Amino acid sequence: MCLAIPARLVELRPHDQAVVDLGGIRKEISIALVADVQVGDYVIVHVGHAIGTIDPEEAERTLALFAEMVRLNEEATP
């Protein structure tokens, strides 16, 4: 199973590269597969590549669900 995650684009770089932020973690990714992205946009990231864009509200809901899964897992782990 593969997982793609939403991340906020924080910096555009040359050669179809960009930096995204996911909960304070910044990672350089390729934006070659998406057109016309701008700083502040949310993109779906899979294996170091933006594969699409996502509405900011949907991105926030998805990230909140991921955070809730982490919290529940931590509570369940002795």
Description:
Helices cover 27% and strands 41% of the residues. The chain has 78 residues and is of the alpha+beta class. Strands 3-2-1-4-5 form a five-stranded antiparallel β-sheet, with helices on one face. Strand 1 (5-13) and strand 2 (17-22) form a beta hairpin. It starts with a strand and ends with a helix. The mean pLDDT is 93.
Write the layout of secondary structure elements.
Elements lengths: L4 E9 L3 E6 L2 E6 L11 E5 L2 E6 L1 H21 L2
Antiparallel strand pairs: 1-2, 1-4, 2-3, 4-5
* Number of distinct helices: 1
In what range is the share of β-strand residues? 35-45%
By helix and strand content, what is the structural category? alpha+beta
Shape: elongated
Order of helices and strands: EEEEEH
Number of strand segments: 5
Low-confidence runs of at least 5 consecutive residues = none
Comma- or semicolon-separated keywords:
78 residues; alpha+beta; 5 strands; 41% strand; elongated
Could you provide a short overview of the structure?
The chain is built from 1 helix and 5 strands, in the order E-E-E-E-E-H. With 78 residues, the chain is α+β, with helices and mostly antiparallel strands. A hairpin with a 2-residue loop joins strand 4 (42-46) and strand 5 (49-54).
